[in-house]
Amino acid sequence: MHFFTILPILAFITSVLAGSGSITKPAKGTSIMPGQSFAFHYDGMAEYSVSGYNYSVWLFTSLPLAFLPSQSFGAGHFFGRYNYANYPGVPYATNPAPANFTMPDLSASYGGFGRGKDASGATVYLAVIEEYAAGSTFGLQMNLATTWLVYNGTQHH
């Protein structure tokens, strides 16, 4: 009978010991100019007993306040959907992220009725949403990792 009372504790310990999924490049606070290439690296959730699958990389001009339906959930740029090798989840990466991304020019015209807006020294957020699994879940679990950057800034960290 004690087994069932300890089960939630074991599940919590497993979740704490699982990988944390973090953006290691660029460093937080890095200033990046529009059109400038910057190093990117994401350390995924995968490790013993945790399989990582796909992850999406986004740039937000402000952090979304809630994950609810909204006409204007957020603004920014989508860099793409990638994966990384981790056995047995993804034995061979079929779409690894590039080592570098290029900061988009958010002041450029998007075509049609969409046009950008100038900003200097603006705080923006690089975000990664990773799909992973650890044991039995109803659908894949998702991890959100973020780091803040300075868009069109002059200081380099």
CATH class: Mainly Beta
Structural class: mainly beta
Give the H and E element order: HEEEEEEEEEEE
In the CATH hierarchy, the third-tier topology is known as Immunoglobulin-like
- What is the percent of helical residues? 10-25%
Uncertain parts: 1-18
What's the main sheet like?
5 strands, mixed
- What radius of gyration results from the CA coordinates? 18 Å
Q: Name the overall outline.
A: globular
Give me the CATH architecture, please: Sandwich
- How far the N terminus sits from the C terminus, by CA atoms, comes to 55 Å
Taking strands numbered 1, 2, ... along the chain, how are they ordered across the largest sheet? Answer: 2-11-10-5-6
SS field, number of helical segments = 1
Q: Report the portion of residues in β strands.
A: 35-45%
Number of domains: 1
**Would you report the number of β strands?**
11
Mean pLDDT: 86
If you had to describe this structure to a student in words, what would you say it looks like?
- It is built from one helix and eleven strands, in the order H-E-E-E-E-E-E-E-E-E-E-E.
- The protein has a single domain, classed as Sandwich (Immunoglobulin-like), CATH 2.60.40.
- A hairpin with a 2-residue loop joins strand 8 (109-111) and strand 9 (114-115).
- The radius of gyration is 18 Å and the shape is globular.
- The protein has one helix at residues 2-17; strands at residues 22-25, 31-32, 37-39, 41-43, 51-60, 76-83, 100-102, 109-111, 114-115, 122-133, 141-151.
- The longest helix has 16 residues, at 2-17.
- It has 157 residues and is mostly beta strands.
- The strands form four sheets. A five-stranded mixed β-sheet has the order 2-11-10-5-6, with no helix packed on it. A two-stranded antiparallel sheet has the order 1-4. Strands 3-7 form a two-stranded antiparallel ribbon.
